[in-house]
Amino acid sequence: MGDVYKELDDVKAQIERLKSEVRVKTELSEGLKKAHSEQLIKYQEAKQETEKQAQELIIKLEEISQAKQVSETLQSCLREKESSLRHLTSLHEKLRVDSENKLYKLEGENKELAFALDEVTERNKELEQNFCASIKEIEGLKRLLSTSERNCFEAEQKAQEAKELRHRDDIILELEEENRNAHDQLKWKKEQFRHLEEAHRRLQDQFQLSKEEWEREKSALVEEISLLQTSLDSQTRILEGVQKRLEMCNQVLAHEESRRKFLEIEVSEFKSRYENVFVQCEQERSKFESLTVQRDEEIAKLRNSLSTKEPFTKEMEFRIVHLEQENQELRESLKELQEAQIRNYGSTALTKLRNKLRGLEQVHSNCSTILKAKESELSFQIEKLKGDISRHNSELKGKEKQIQELQMELESYHSMIEVLKEEISVVLTIYKSEFSEAYSKRSDAKTEMPLCNRMDDKISLLTTQLEMKSSDLRNVHLQLEQEHEKVKELMKRVRSLELTDQQQVIMEEEIQQHKMMLEESSAHQLYMEEKFLRMEGEKRDVSEALEKTNLELAKKIIEVSQLKYELQNLESSAESLKVCCEENQEKCRQMENSLLAQSENEEVLKHEKESHITIIKEQNNKVEVLHQQIVLLEAKVAAKRVEVEALTQDKEDLIKNVKEKDSCIVNLQKDITWMKQESMKREAEAAILAGIDAEKSVGQEKERLFKVINEKDQNIKNLQVLASSLEEDLTSAFVLSFSEVVENLLTTEALKKAKHMTELVIEEKNKKIVDLEKEVSGLGQRLIHQKEALFTQKQQEEELQALLEANEVENDKLMGEHRRLEGIVKQLEFEKGVLLQDTTKLSKEREELLVHMEKFCDHIGEFTCDDVKMMNFLETMLQRSKLEVGPAMNFTVDDELYDFSEENANASFSASATKLDTSAGRSPLREVNQRQL
Questions:
Q1: What is the CA angle 655-659-660, rounded to 5?
Q2: Closest CA to 178 of 143, 138, 214
Q3: What is the pTM of this model?
Q4: What count of other Cβ atoms lies within 10 Å of the Cβ of residue 448?
Q5: 748-768 burial: b if 16+ Cβ within 10 Å, else e
Q6: Confidence of residue 106 (pLDDT cuts 50, 70, 90)
Q7: Which of 346, 442, 533, 571 satisfies CB 3.0 to 4.6 Å to 342 for a cystine?
Q8: Which residues, at least 6 apart from 269, have a Cβ–Cβ distance to it below 8 Å?
Q9: End-to-end Cα spacing for the chain
Q10: How far apart, in whole angstroms, are the C-alpha atoms of residue 439 and residue 431?
Q11: How confident is the model at residue 902 (pLDDT cuts 50, 70, 90)?
């Protein structure tokens, strides 16, 4: 029992120790909590101070960058000035050497001049050294000039001396003008030099002030930079812990990646479908255009074939009618000849007429077969064209259905895009709420405050990226709407093309109607009118060419005069610049002398030299440029003179051609008037394209009729000769037989009857000719009406051509928009590549963050396992103490022990629970993302 009491005392002492330790630990925990709260307050204050310091740092860095830029600009200006000084010194030396060489040359040239010129040059040098004495020397020169003029008047008898004196007088006057100009330029340059000195002094003062300020700012900035570096080192240590938490955003980015990829795939599908549809539309448009072109070509071919074949048909019909009339006339003549019983003289005429009739019947049969074949060909071609038109209409209807289906697909895609936008907005709200919860949970931790700031920045970046993507989707949506509008416009164009097709069909019908009307006109008249129009057009072209050549000649003459004036100006400016160069060279010499004399003012003289050198250089450059311009202008003048001569020759040739063409036109006008007079007298309605052959046939028929008339006249003459011979024979043979006399009388009566019949035939044909001339006058009026109809048709064709050109312009616009969309697609692909790179980087960061979180969770699990072990150990200790003490002990001790064990257990359990909560709260995004996925 004593041992038990001792153990109990030991246990009580241990329990009291444990209680005291617990109290100490509770006090320590309370102190730690207070210290933690104080540290949080201090941390917040430090954070505010760091933010202020960061802002100040940014401002100071900007000031430093500005100061650096200013210093760099100043240094660059200094370097440029030093380089310019060096360059100017080198140029000054070169110019000095060049000026010396030029002076030597000029001195050699001046020695050749007369003594008066030597005196003038000496006086000019004295004027350059002593400006005040120049006026007196000029007066002396004027006196010398007056004396020289008197000498010139005296020496007029001698031609050589007079020429020299005149030359010298001109030179002296030029030198006086040069002296005046030199004095003016010296004054102007002295004023410039004074202004430049003042500006240089101001710049030096400003440079010294800026240098002093820059040194002060530099010292202050160095101190600030040292302070900022210390603060940055402390902040970088804090930020290193914050950077580890930034990897939490990778899960969100991965989820966004999947969404973005899905959206990009859908957008690419939309683009591919749109491109396919656009390509199909373009193909169908190209096919439609090619078919329209083929149709127009076929129509043109058919028109040409009609224009070539219809005259043959009309000619054959006219010939058939004419041959029938001739057959009737020949039959009547045959009957009359049979009644007259002229066998001897009528047998040959009958054979000829029979041969003619057979030939005419063969021609008639051939013409009928040819007409039938041509009519069958034309009907076949017309049916073929109708089938092509119906086929094209069916194809257009099928394409309209395809376009409507594509419009339905576009509307479905628009609805899908709107749904995706709503999903993205929901996901953004979820992410924002989750990040705000995580931020509220982690706001108590000391090391997680900067992480939350970085997380906010990252979230803002992600939101901006999402907004960019949403803006891209909006742009794509707008582009799709634009393409939808373009499809509508294409539909409108297709409908307009259908209307144009219908109009073309109507026009074709009208053309066929007009063809029937055009068949009633004469082509020869059109041919002559076209020829006249061509000649008039050629005359107009020639007159326009003459007017153009005249205008070009006038322009070139004006340009030549302008160039001459410019040459004069340039020569005068070149001479003045030469004078200035000489003056500047002399000034350079004076400056060199003053430099040798005044070594103290070297800096000022350097500036003067530089200014003068730059002026001299500029003037020399100007002189060179002017010389080059003079050479070029002279070359241009020579070339333009050659061109003017060529143009004059061309003009003369054109005038000759115009005169020749005018004479041709006058002759043609005369021919046309004569042809019009003849056409008003000629016969028969004929088509526009068949008029030439009809007129030829009429002419041939007239010639043939004249030949028949001539033949009949010859026959009559022959008959008269025969009659006279027969009468003579009868008179001679009257004695022989009375019967023969009777027969001869009968033959003479028959011949007289035949002659009377031929005269009647000739009168009838003359009447027919008069009728045909009346019909030709009617045809002329019809031609005028048909011309008016053709003019209206031409206007309609021009309107159709304008519509086609407008369609081509719209097609070009669509192609330009297509190219612009391709550029936008390329930009989107480039942005896609950039986003893929960003996503790969973010995925890597996410993986690293997940590894870090797994390690952290493993540590938390180990701590929880240790806590559980401690709990089990304490419970076993309590159970042993209870068993050893037994029921003899007071219940108070058991209660206290029980309470103490419960408190310890609860404390340990609460600590483990808090650790588990913290471990579970460190990765809130994983569960949320898993739920969403």
A1: 120
A2: 138
A3: 0.20
A4: 19
A5: bebbeebbebbeebeeebeee
A6: low
A7: 346
A8: none
A9: 69
A10: 12
A11: very low
